Amino acid sequence: MNVYFIIAYRNILQRRMRSLVLAVAIVVVSLVFSLLLALVQGVKNTMIGNGTALMTGHLNIAGFFKLSQSSANPMVTKYEPLLEYAKTQIPEADIIVDRIKAYGKVISETDSVIIPMWGVNMDQESNVLGRLEIDKDANGKVLGDLFQLKDRGTMALFAVHAKKLKVSIGDMVTVSIPTQRNINNTKDLKIVAILKDVGMMSQFNAYMHSADAREIYQSKADSTGQVMIYLKDISTLKTVEARLRNDLSSKGYRLMDKDSAPFWMKFDRVAGESWTGQKIDITTWEDETSFLKWIISLLSALTFILTIVLSIIIAMGLINALWMSVKERTTEIGTLRAIGMQKSKVLWMFMLESLILSVSSTAVGLILAAIICQTLNAIALPIQNEAFKLFLMTNTLHFAFGLPQALITFMSLVTFFTLGSLIPARQAAKLSPIIAINQS
Amino acid sequence: MQPIILENVIKNYLLDKIQVPALKGIDLKIDAGEFTVIAGPSGSGKTTILNLIGCVDTASAGKVVVGGKETGTLSEKQLTDLRLHTIGFIFQSFNLIPVLNVIDNVEFPLLLQNTLSPKERRERVLKFVDRVGLTQYAHHRPSELSGGQRQRVAIARALVTRPQIVLADEPTANLDSVTGQNIIDLMKEINQTEKTTFLFSTHDHSIMNQARRVIRLHDGKIQANA
């Protein structure tokens, strides 16, 4: 075994208590960092999972139709050729569905809510909307069946809205929606399913039959809200998006400029533009859920700040411990220099101590983090606080701890601590060999 | 070739902006295979001479030639290299690496040299450990050895690279008289069989009497060279 490794390893063992305290500290930092990264990734995954079930495909062929310069209707007219194109010219696609976009008031006997709604065709949606969980009542009874949305005159609400409207399955609500010509059309719908809340996104979605949505809007059968394309491999998104944009443009479709915002944030801009007729807007799941990006940004920033603060504290401890080690081993270093060890080797010897400590402790932290994440995911720890449910977009804590998170934690902490050890290691390397003789 | 040549070497130290002369024009030549003692009272310049010959310090003036190389013209890296390949050090306080066992301590300079194969290295180490009579303690750490045994390890470590010169700064100062005598006997024996040049400092008159040449220093000058 490399003698430098042996020296470093045995010096760590010799200063057992100091090394142990440092090792535990590094394990804690590594654990906290990993858990926070796993939580951020978990929220991201939840956002992708929920977002792509609730309101967007990985890629969408959407757009606006303007009857007049000041209007803005989020719809795609004559969508069949586009649907056909998606089905035949995008081999990367796994599932393709189309939904009608609606926005209006849902009125119960006691209250009302204004929410975005979707007209869906459940024949297409089993692997999309069908992924959502149905809520249960206090007795554990499942509240409805989402697939009853196949029938006309039905509606599915999230628990948050059902609670506000004080409705349950079998109850009737009235949907009132302003049409393109500013006339409010209404339709009575029966609640057939109450969906389990998925945090903040629950606030922005409710579902009805696509034919009912068309009927309320008085729109033709050849129009839809958007064609939603789900890819087999999400990593192909950018390529497919670029190809789609290029193909539709060359087919003569008028395309809207790329704007990374959900469709409902584009109304004012589109209404203010002078064109009329149809324009196609190609969007991604990231665009449509960009209004929730701040949550990820905030969590990432918190993770970064907390980790930096903790790492600096630990690095100071590590530097101090190595500094003490240099002081205690002055004669030894001088001796090594006297017998012919180059400065660079002394530097390496001390950095190796830090490297061994940080590599082994970070690895332990990662293993613990993996175990804790697995356990917490298995337990499906419920979030009690409503604000946290909204914020984290889930009812249970979900940690996604994979190789990328592990590698980020490992590389960043080991690099940080090893670089920190450069300061005392350089001091050690600078020691003159004469010390060995003078201190003899 | 004479492995050690000092010509009109002067060494001054700065103490609180005052120049303190440690060596005042030393001329010295040591032949290969000599067993030489540098003697003198404290402050006479014994250690300073060893430091200069050991390439761990530089002269204020004059010429120091070690192993055919003038040390004043060498870079720090070259000086370190010269120490590694030409000089073996034996320290008063043994200065072993506490976390390494006897074999690892002796092997260390060979690892730094990195010129032998692992098998050759092992054989060389075991030979020198045996030579200093520590085979049965080969896997002991310094803390598990007596003072005399530790100094034997230091001797083996100094010799394992087959250096031209072995420098020893009061190698028996921390040992009792019997153990000290044993160490000197061992050094003499190795000097005779390996033809290694030994240069060491001491206060001890009984040890001075056993050297083939004694250089007496006083106040930074050579008083007697016989």
Q: Could you tell me how far the N terminus lies from the C terminus of chain B, measured between alpha carbons in angstroms?
A: 20 Å
Q: Give the chain pair forming the largest contact, with residue counts.
A: A-B, 28 and 33 residues
Secondary-structure element order of chain B, N to C = EEEHEEHEHHHEHEHEE
Proportion in β-strands of chain A: 15-25%
Structural class of chain A: alpha+beta
Task: Tell me how many strands of chain B there are.
Answer: 10
What is the typical, i.e. mean, pLDDT of chain B? 89
Number of domain units of chain A: 2
Helix content, binned percent of chain A: 40-55%
CATH class of chain B: Alpha Beta
What are the segments of chain B in which pLDDT stays under 50 over at least 5 consecutive residues? Answer: none
The count of β-strands of chain A is 9
Query: Radius of gyration of chain B, rounded?
Result: 17 Å
What CATH calls the topology of chain B is: Rossmann fold
Number of helices of chain A: 15
The assigned structural class of chain B equals alpha/beta
User: Tell me about the biggest sheet of chain B?
Assistant: 6 strands, mixed
